[in-house]
Each structure stands twice: as structure tokens, then as C-alpha cells.
Amino acid sequence: MKVFLSTADASGDLHAAALLGELREREPDLEAFGLGGEASLAAGLDPVVPQSELAIAGLFEVFGSAARVVRAYAALRRSLVTRRPDLAILVDSPDLNLRFAAVAKRHGIPVFYYVAPQVWAWRPRRVRQLARRTDRMAVIFPFEEALLRRAGVDATFVGHPLAGRMAELRASLKPKEVAAELGLDLEHPILGLLPGSRRNEIRANLPYMLETASLLLDAIPGLQVQLPLAPTLAANPPELPDYVRLVHGRTHEAIAISTCLIAAAGTVTLEATLLGVPLVVSHRVSRLSFEIVRRLATVPSSCMTNLIADAGVVPERIQEMARPSALAAVVARLIRVPQARAEMCEAFARIAEQLGTPDSARRAAQLALDVAHLRPSGTASSA
Fold first, then answer.
1. Of 7, 8, 103, 244, which alpha carbon lies 20 to 30 A from 339's?
2. How far is CA 353 from CA 160, 199, 281, in A?
3. DSSP of 248-317
4. Domains of the chain (ranges, CATH numbers)
5. For residue range 104-151, what is the model confidence (pLDDT) as tens digits?
């Protein structure tokens, strides 16, 4: 069996790798190629384009790297058409993957979408594109199945892939050992900075997060600061002041031993939720990107934890509100007031119960195989 895989960010890469592992158990001769990161490569993906080439976020930030993006897209599109896969597996990233879905459909290649793009949050018209361009979708939030089915998408809730992974980590974690290995001391508070997994997110978010951390260092004796680095940024890590410890390759462990986090909106906020670590969501994008998204958004929060809870469980300081002094005040309260942390963690536990059992990748793999078998033998796509 041959599959084309496209996953364009660090969190999607982990989900894709787990799916590939489950597929390989059922199809030992599986051949997978396309776009992926370190986890997908370790799961056997043949990289037509490495994920680091497309580590960009934001509507207009992409234009600054337009030539690289166009070259990468052209190479991936060519491979999708010429290598004739039995199935296209697309993970999130709608700006890129809906294009591949259209190409695949034109060439008779079944399309399986894993992890629904959150077009329902700010680009609802794209839901119709999902209905036309996909054969099956595996969704990871419980409310998505009914919402997408009403729009004509063949969607099935399989559970969130992080639910099992984070539960296993919490059960096996040895906090003192991890802290010692990372050069940290659990007797003093630990602040984790998570500015994002893409280069432009680092440029936009890291400077004010570092300024916030500097203010907190003056206010909270013994505070330790760490920055777990996304794999997509490992080749070109940011320059950091001496008080920040850079963590490579152990992001989830680093999150798990933190007292509090400052995190850009994204999958990491849900990872923190499932690990029971209090956080504040904060990020900035270009003014133009922000204004467009603000006008298109149909949901009240940029934090998935708050959307699932239908409440403001996690404080958010976005765009102009992401001022170091204001952000430091919110974080300081979470670090200094145990009751504030406990209340947030109680809400996190309730959210975790809604996200399903730890077998989401297995369920998604079976759905993917069902889709691949939709195409009769001998109807591979032509160039």
C-alpha cells in the first residue's frame, strides 16, 4: 500500500507518526511519502519536502517566504500525481492541504483527512470544500462530528490523539529525575515559555515573553525559566539570555514539570491541559493578519481549552493585550496562589474526560484503510 502524507506543523507531525505506525501494523509493506517532520520520518515517511521548509504561520507572514513555499508545494504536488498513491492522508493545515485534496480528487485518489482544520472557527465557507474534496474525516474534538456532518462532511470522532499520550506520560513521569536532567529544581517555581513552533511565531512572541519572564524574575524569588524548543526549530535555535534554559527534544516532559506556562495558541495549550499544568495563552501576529482573522472569527476564544469548556478557564492576552507588565501580573498570580492553580487544574480534568479513550490513532487507521479500499484495484491516478 502506498500513501501520500502531508503534515505541516510539529503537533500534526506527532499525530501523523502515530497514524503511520498503526497503518504499518496492518500493512507491513506500507510506503509513505510527502511532507512531514522528525516523528513522521522516524515512522518511515520518505520526505519529499522536510517540514522545516514550511514552518511559517499567519496569513501574510507566508508571503515573505513565498518562493520557498511555492517550490515546496510544486514538489509535493508533483509527487502526489506521479507516484500514484492508494490514499492521500492530510493532517490539519487547510491552506496547504485543501489544495492537495483537490489535486488528489481530480486524479482519482481517495482523500482521508485526519484532524479537522478549524475552518468552523473562522472560515466556515471552507467546510463546503471539505465536503467536496474529502472522502472521510477523522475528527479529534467531540463537537466537530455533528457540526461537520450537518455540512455534508463524512466525519467521525475518534478521540484526541493527545489524550492517551499525555495520560501515559503523566503516569510514567518522574518529575525529580526530569528536573535534575534539565538542570532545574522542583523546590522553586518553573516557568515554561512556548512561543510557537514556527519561525515567524518565535520572532513575534519570544521577545515580549522574555521581557515578561525578566519582570517575573525580579518579582518571584528563585523562579526558573525554560524554553522547550519545537523540532521544526532545532536547526536554528533562537538566541536566549543566560537565565533561560533551552530544552531540546523533551517538550512534553518540560511542560509537565512546569509550575506555569506562557504559551501561544495552538496544540500546546491542549497538551498543557491534559498534563494538568496551568497556563496563560498569549500571542501576536502581524496587524493585518490579526484584523482579518478577528473579522472572520466565529468563536469567542483562540484557546481550544476554553472552547471545549465553553468558559474562560485559561486567561488570554492576545495582540495589544500581550504586554509584558499585564502578562506578568496574570502569571504571577498563578505561580503565587495555589488555589488559582488548583481551580484551573480541576477544570482541566473535566475537559480531559471529554476527549475520548487512548486509541484514537488505531481508530483513525481503520477509517483510513476503509477509505483506501474505496478505490477499485487498477484505478491509480494518472499524471
1. 244
2. 11, 34, 22
3. ES-HHHHHHT-SEEEE-SSHHHHHHHHHT--EEEEE---HHHHHHHHHH--SS-S-HHHHHHTS--S-EE
4. 2-159+357-372 (3.40.50.2000), 163-353 (3.40.50.2000)
5. 999 999 999 999 887 655 556 678 888 999 999 999 988 889 889 988
Average pLDDT of span 48-77? 71
Sign of CA dihedral 328, 331, 335, 336: positive
Distance CA 292, CA 123 (A): 11
Of 298, 365, 325, nearest to 126 by C-alpha is 298
Phi then psi for 246, rounded to 5 degrees? -90, 130
Which among 53, 347, 258 has a CA at the least distance from the CA of 247? 258
CA torsion angle 50 42 274 240 (round to 10): -50
Contacts of 36 (CB under 8 A, 6+ apart): 5, 6, 7, 13, 16, 17, 45, 47, 50, 51
pLDDT digits (tens, 9 = 90+) for 33-48: 999 999 999 999 999 9
Question: Exposed, middle or buried by CB within 10 Å (0-12, 13-18, 19+), for 53?
Answer: middle
* DSSP bridge pairs for 251: none
